[in-house]
Amino acid sequence: MAAFLKVTDLTIGFNAPEPIIDAVNFSLNKGETLAIVGESGSGKTLSCRAILGILPQTAQIRSGQIMFNHLDQQIDLLKLSERCLRSIRGNSISMIFQEPMRSLSPLHKVGHQVAEVLELHLDWSKRKIKQAVLAKFERVGFPDPERAYRAYPFEMSGGMLQRAMIAMAMIAKPDLLIADEPTTALDVTTQAQVLGLIKDLQSETGMAVILVTHDLGVVANMADHVVVMNKGRVMERGEAKLVLGAPAHPYTQKLFAAAPTIPETSEFVPPPPHDDLILDMQDISKTYQARSASALQPAVIIKAVCDVNLKLARGKTFAVVGESGSGKSTCARIALGAELPNIGGRVLFKSQTDKTPIEVQALTHAERVGFQKQAQMVFQDPFSSLSPRMQIIDTLTEPLDIHGIGTKSERNDRALEMLEQVGLNGSMLRRYPHAFSGGQRQRLSIARALTLNPKLLVCDEPTSALDVSVQDQILDLLEEIRDARNLSYLFISHDLAVVSRIADEVAVMRRGRIVEQAPPCTLFANPKHPYTQALIAAQPEPDIHRTIDLNLVSLGAGSSTSWAEEFRFEDKNIPPLMELEPGHMVRCHG
């Protein structure tokens, strides 16, 4: 019996004689999941785009076949006309793209963009289509599907946009789903639920899945077969239990060695002392008003952050973890003065031990300029945060130019110094951002943040979009710079394995509130709150014998009414943060 999808000797090149994809082979049966694993630039995504016929215009398919079983007929997708491919895309074959902000139109509401798939391929009424979209939004984890349906892409977080992309790809129940890093921007609980959703749809419809990922934990939980790629070539392929259980190729072994995991330890480590604080956030709350469904209804009040207290010791790393929409990034913006807290909240920043702390929320414009020299940010998406029209030398010297620091020659020297400090060489100064890989762009973002020699660095998901080996390098770099410069980090993340490695203290946030706080060794060895337990249970590990417990994840990440009584949130009866052991705070009723 012929395979449902079979790729044979696929070779793709551009203008150079050397191919980018060289003789790639893999096959997939109905109902199976094939994981394609590799670092950035290995050719994973390009191989999958060839299946849908959405390669760049300059790409040349030099050889190969892509045979697909469509309506019980074997067809070569590479020989189909554009018109025939359009009838297959989104209906028989769907794709979840990695970068949702660039894949969704900023001019149209999210719900309408998802509904368009059904409008193009099915003869349904508008009411039935909307009901189907709302039902799918609920399944992919939107807390308010109706609000998500009405929202524009710029009104949603990266994690929420990725959920919308997953809904769009799965709404028509395709025969083949190509998922390109589908859970990269998602927190671990939502990731676990989405992976469970994909498995459910597979069992219901017999859908085949190609999973493009760098997360070996996701592979262990999802894949039947694995293909490992590097520099456009297949390094290793086979059944998941064989490849993950006993990787044979040195490249596969290297990927496993770089994969972060939560350490198993019960050793008690006290939290860092709070006698020399660089940042002290006191009674921080933040409320927004969102537009309602109609002009006749009152504005919707959104409590993004509620009564958060956070103390960052000098030279240490304080990590804030939680799901998308929990208030992590809002706390980061308030810490930098980019957002003002509600009245009563205070953000105290002390640049040096012997200095008087300043109140960030009360700074004048002139005072804020001085504060910004001391506190900088590394953003989640380095591609969006770097101007595509500026050479790297101009990107790195711009902060110095804005603050009037040094001559032009001194600024250029500083840019070269920063570039070398993050592991890049001076020959790259005249390049543009598009000429760099994702890991290199993140290094450039770190270099720019360090140009002004700050004391505090706020890192907002700095490694979430990176493959495991590059992520390992970036974490090494951040630790090295922190120790060399006595920097302090406020580290925002949803990856507990990353947090367990770099943080001195961790706060777990859920719906605007800190629900548990402790040093990482205490938190991961003895989690008390149901939500913290769900986060740890949802963390995928590169071990086929330790799959995600979806029942535990659903319990902790679900409604608080399902939690044990001492943790439950009921109306205005919010339990306080209580110290259960030294340095271990849990939100519970005594």
Topology:
Blueprint: E1 5-13, E2 21-28, E3 33-37, H1 44-52, E4 60-70, E5 73-76, H2 82-88, E6 93-96, H3 100-103, H4 110-121, H5 126-139, H6 145-150, H7 158-170, E7 176-180, H8 188-205, E8 208-213, H9 216-222, E9 225-230, E10 233-239, H10 240-245, H11 250-258, E11 277-290, E12 300-313, E13 317-322, H12 328-335, E14 346-349, E15 358-359, H13 365-374, E16 375-378, H14 382-385, H15 392-402, H16 408-421, H17 438-450, E17 456-460, H18 468-485, E18 488-493, H19 496-502, E19 505-510, E20 513-518, H20 520-525, H21 530-538, H22 550-557, E21 577-581, E22 584-587
Parallel strand pairs: 3-8, 3-9, 6-7, 7-8, 13-18, 13-19, 16-17, 17-18
Antiparallel strand pairs: 1-2, 1-4, 4-5, 9-10, 11-12, 11-14, 14-15, 19-20, 20-22, 21-22
Helix pairs in contact: 4-5, 4-7, 5-7, 8-21, 8-22, 15-16, 16-17, 21-22
